[in-house]
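Troubleshooting: if your tokenizer reports a length mismatch, compare your output against this known-good record of 133 residues.
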Amino acid sequence: MQRRARRFDAGISLTPMIDVMTTLLAVFMVTTPMMTAGIDLELPRAGHSAMTGNDHAIQISVDSAGRYYLARDAMPLDEVVKRATAMRTENPNLAITISGDARADYGAVMRAMGRLKDAGFQKVGLKTQIDNK
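Known-good structure output:
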């Protein structure tokens, strides 16, 4: 009997890795602008050191009329929580910073914070500005 020599292909296929990297790039390109942009608000003043927010956190805003914004897009609170939860699947340690206008209803800001906590977010903070007095 004659044995045939087997030849093994020891090469690495790059196609699956390129597919994964392209998908991740697309996800980050879509979510990054939502995490850094926001609307213009008059933030409440709080002491001499302000919580400025994390650049890697989702920015949620509540304006003086009690409307909710994710980045610059106005939407109902249910939609804000739904989108934030979807973003958390990509980054389980995602932080959220709520920017509430100084004239915003306290209940609207706390409602957003409570709903996000109920959705499982552990890192939810409030953004303020420094009181210069």
